[in-house]
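ok so for the tutorial part 2 we go from a plain amino acid sequence to predicted structure tokens. step 1 is just haveing the sequence, like this:
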Amino acid sequence: MPRTDDPAPSDRRRRVQSAEVGMTVLKALARLGGAASLTTIAQQVGESTAKIHRYLASLMQEELVAQNPATQHYYLGGAAVQIGLAALRQCDPVRLGEVALLRLRDELQVTCFIAVMGNRGPTVLRIEEPALPVTVNTRAGSVMPLLTSATGRAFIGFSGDPVVERMAREEMGAEDTLQALRTQARQQGCATVTDSLQQGISAVAAPIHDAHGHVSAVLTALGASSGFDARPAGPIALAIMREARAISQSLGWAA
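step 2 — the prediction. this is what the tokens look like for a chain of 255 residues:
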């Protein structure tokens, strides 16, 4: 016998729909920069101002939304901030990229890894290899050169970090070379190398951005040049850029 106090299916559906609309309002407010007028929020959601006003009132009761008495604009409240901070504390590009590494390894059948900038240069933190890996001198903890590796060139091209600039100049010293690498990477959306780091090895690398747009890590694929398509518009590069964007979005980055 069903419990008499259980809500009817129609009631449950209404509650679920109400929760969905509430989440839609919160996401719209976030897209609008965290603060906006009632009219702007309603336009963003595609609902009437009367309906959105009711949802905003409920969200205010839960401190997910607050209202500026001077402008009457709504903004994300303290509870929403706490939720955001809790999510940010879990924003580890390596942890978030683990599934992507496995997916890329199986899809492309090449070695894939995530590297971060260490005090000696780009450092490999997590690596996945196919069943029959190409023999390369890359393992977790390996430090990659900035100028001759795709990983290093991705940091040069997208980070804008003065520490990276200094380390790159110490490797090469030629400003025009650094500018050429930077321009090429940004035009392509990724960095590529063929036989420059190790003879017979090619690689493609793309940046992973954090919520502030900084390069927090680089996603790289590498393999034997004879069977590795390192073209910026090739399937490997497109897959690496796709996964790097997805990880960046998980970190809160909005392109």
